[in-house]
């Protein structure tokens, strides 16, 4: 079990473009474009989530093998952390 909590971080403006979500950091000028799955992760992070809960929700919602989902989400979270969109503590 992983007790780390993932929180949205910073002041991000968002807009839907089709299934994607376009995000811009008002403070830093960073820009991100999230796919449908990335947008779903961002939506789930409206409230802080544990990594395990986030994985479980996405595995249940998408037809993807659990290990593949975990790996992809962990890589995506690392990108969000590097862009200061989320923090993990």
CATH homologous superfamily title: Coenzyme PQQ synthesis protein D (PqqD)
- 3D shape: globular
Which CATH class? Mainly Alpha
CATH architecture: Orthogonal Bundle
Strand coverage percent: 25-35%
Instruction: State the separation between the terminal residues, measured CA to CA.
Output: 14 Å
Structural class: alpha+beta
Gyration radius, in Å: 13 Å
* Main sheet specs: 3 strands, antiparallel
Helix % is 40-55%
CATH topology: Arc Repressor Mutant, subunit A
Number of helices: 3
Strand order of the largest sheet: 5-1-6
| Unreliable residue runs | none
Q: What is the N-to-C succession of helices and strands?
A: EEEEHEHHE
User: How many domains make up the coordinates?
Assistant: 1
Mean pLDDT: 94
Care to count the β-strands?
6
Q: How would you sum up this structure, described in words?
A:
Helix content is about 40%, strand content about 30%. The chain is of the alpha+beta class and about 90 residues long. The chain has a single domain (about 10-89), classed as Coenzyme PQQ synthesis protein D (PqqD) (Arc Repressor Mutant, subunit A), CATH 1.10.10. Strand 3 (about 20-25) and strand 4 (about 30-35) form a beta hairpin. Helix 2 crosses helix 3. About 15% of the residues are buried.
Summarize the helices and strands and which ones pair or pack.
Elements: E1 5-8, E2 12-17, E3 20-25, E4 31-34, H1 36-44, E5 49-50, H2 51-61, H3 66-82, E6 86-88
Helix pairs in contact: 2-3
Feature tags:
89 residues, Arc Repressor Mutant, subunit A, 3-stranded antiparallel β-sheet, 6 strands, globular
């Amino acid at each position: 079990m992983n007790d780390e909590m993932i929180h949205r971080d910073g002041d991000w403006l968002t807009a839907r473009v089709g299934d994607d979500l376009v995000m811009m950091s008002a403070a830093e000028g960073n820009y991100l474009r999230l796919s449908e799955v990335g947008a779903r992760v961002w939506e789930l992070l409206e409230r802080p989530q544990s990594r395990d809960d986030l994985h479980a929700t996405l595995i249940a919602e998408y037809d993807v093998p659990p290990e593949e989902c975990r790996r992809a989400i962990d890589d995506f979270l690392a990108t969000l952390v590097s862009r200061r969109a989320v923090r993990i503590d």
